[in-house]
Design brief:
Number of helices: 12
Number of strands: 6
Largest sheet: 4 strands, antiparallel
CATH topology of the largest domain: Multidrug efflux transporter AcrB transmembrane fold
Radius of gyration: 25 Å
Strand order of the largest sheet: 3-4-2-5
Helix content: 55-70%
Number of domains: 2
């Protein structure tokens, strides 16, 4: 019984034919994304700008959408509601209102009164404010986590392969992250800690796809010493194409189901990872691979490092 093959074994797509066009489009898109972030900024959530947090335990199971609607009718801003701890304990987060601590205290009081009135037996466990200073530190920590993850990955690939591969991986990750930042700047979807997790997930997926392609390129560099670099990269991309398509489609189908059928609280996270998966698939082919050509990688220059360390593979 033959397994279903999405990509025939004899596939020979000339990916590198479009490398310069892809480079120009990627540079334009990246610059435009960063310009949108600078011009419009990001719609930072309570995690990063501060606000009010109310934790409540209900006597009976509740409809979260109904609770969100009741909170929003208080006109205190866009409420974020998440299950917290136990099965009937929820955390309600509200943006910090204008008017300082007095206005913040009134907002918490309004939410308390609404809960006690609308949900008999409910208990308000805590009501507190998250200061802007603490949130600013959290935002810096999130940005630092993304930057360190990207840098650490680039250093690992540098030692695992060659310095050109490390530069290629870093350029690919920077492209992917900047594109998603630009998307959130355009749509003004809220950026919270869930989105930071999404960024890290995108970095991980993009790296995984890039490493698979790089590993095949390195293997073919050792195997086909007389082959020119562009045909060799095309060969490597075609050999890994089936794996790339199957992995990307599997992830995107699962994320699409979550996007349309999942709860609102994970909409931004799901959309960010879905977009990042698509961009990461593109960049692993048209950023990470072509950059090796632009950095002058050749079979001879790659293998000089390994001369004298063991038997040379047979030339083909």
């Amino acid at each position: 019984m033959k397994l279903l093959k999405l990509v025939p074994d004899n596939t020979n797509i000339d990916f590198m034919r479009w490398r310069n066009v892809a480079l120009i489009l990627s540079i334009i898109a990246t610059v435009a994304s960063l310009a949108m972030v600078a011009a419009r900024g990001l719609n930072l959530g309570i995690d990063f700008v501060g606000g009010q947090v109310v934790r409540t335990t209900f006597a009976q199971p509740i409809d979260v959408e109904e609770l969100r609607g009741r909170v929003n009718r208080l006109e205190l801003g866009d409420a974020s509601i998440q299950e917290f701890g136990g099965p009937r304990t929820y955390q309600i987060r509200l943006p910090r209102p204008e008017g300082g601590d007095a206005a913040a205290s009134r907002a918490v009081t309004q939410v308390r009164q609404m809960i006690v009135k609308s949900y008999p037996g409910a208990r308000v466990d805590a009501g507190e404010s998250v200061s802007g200073k603490v949130s600013e530190e959290l935002a810096l920590d999130g940005a630092l986590a993304i930057a360190l993850a990207m840098l650490g990955i680039a250093i690992y690939i540098w030692f695992r392969f060659e310095w050109q591969f490390g530069v290629g991986a870093l350029a690919t990750l920077a492209h992917d992250v900047s594109m998603i930042f630009g998307f959130f700047a355009i749509t003004q979807l809220q950026v919270d800690l869930n989105i930071v997790a999404a960024f890290l997930a995108v970095v991980g997926y993009s790296l995984n796809d890039t490493v698979v392609i790089y590993d095949r390129i390195r293997e073919n560099l050792r195997k086909y010493r007389k082959m020119a670099i562009i045909p060799l990269i095309n060969l490597s991309l075609n050999e890994t194409l089936s794996r790339t398509i199957v992995t990307s489609l599997s992830i995107m189908l699962a994320l699409a189901a979550l996007l349309f059928l999942g709860p609102d609280v994970i909409f931004g996270l799901t959309l960010a990872v879905l977009l990042g998966t698509f961009i990461g698939t593109y960049s692993s082919v048209y950023i990470s691979a072509p950059i090796l050509v632009w950095l002058g990688v050749k079979p001879d220059s790659f293998l000089r490092v390994e001369e004298g360390t063991g038997p040379r593979p047979q030339e083909i």
